[in-house]
Design a protein that fits this description.
Elements lengths: L30 H13 L7 H17 L3 H38 L4 H15 L1 H4 L3 H15 L6
Helix pairs in contact: 2-3, 3-6, 4-6
Length: 156
């Protein structure tokens, strides 16, 4: 992996590879570190949703550091990094598909003002698409759905 593909600011939290495989292991922490990590998660300021997310993120960042220290670590890190990127891309894609399908399902049961209110809610998601990591395809699908809602067309 090249240096520009790695970002110190990125949060690498996905737990599966492209086939959905995982290996679970246990990590022991002193109680005070565990509580502090929970406090950080509770702030909502970071993408971490669990202590496990922090561990996965830290592992990728530490592997990057090690890759700069040793050629063997570089090879291992490259494999690690690709796996993390694929897992993250799959998770974003699945979440995007769920967003579109849930809005479509919800829209099917709404009429009149409720449909217009849903259109406003969807537009807010589109406006926040960068933070939500929505794909261009998902944004297009959501815009199409807004048009259907505005004109009260049946959803196909």
């Amino acid at each position: 992996m090249s240096e520009e593909e790695y970002s110190i600011d990125e949060c690498y939290i996905h737990s599966t590879d492209k086939r959905g495989h995982v290996i679970q292991f246990r990590v022991a922490l002193p109680p005070d570190q565990y509580r502090r990590a929970e406090q950080l998660i509770a702030t909502g300021k970071f993408k971490w949703r669990s202590i496990q997310d922090i561990c996965r993120d830290g592992m990728i960042h530490r592997m990057h550091w090690a890759s700069e220290q040793d050629p063997l670590a570089q090879e291992i890190y490259d494999i690690f990094r690709v796996s993390a990127e694929v897992g993250q891309a799959l998770a974003v894609r699945e979440a995007s598909e769920k967003i579109v399908s849930s809005y479509r399902e919800l829209a099917g049961g709404l009429r009149g003002k409720e449909r217009l209110q849903l259109a406003v809610t969807i537009q807010e998601k589109i406006d926040d698409s960068e933070r939500l990591q929505l794909s261009n395809r998902t944004v297009r699908q959501l815009r199409d759905l807004i048009e259907q809602l505005k004109y009260d067309d049946p959803l196909g």
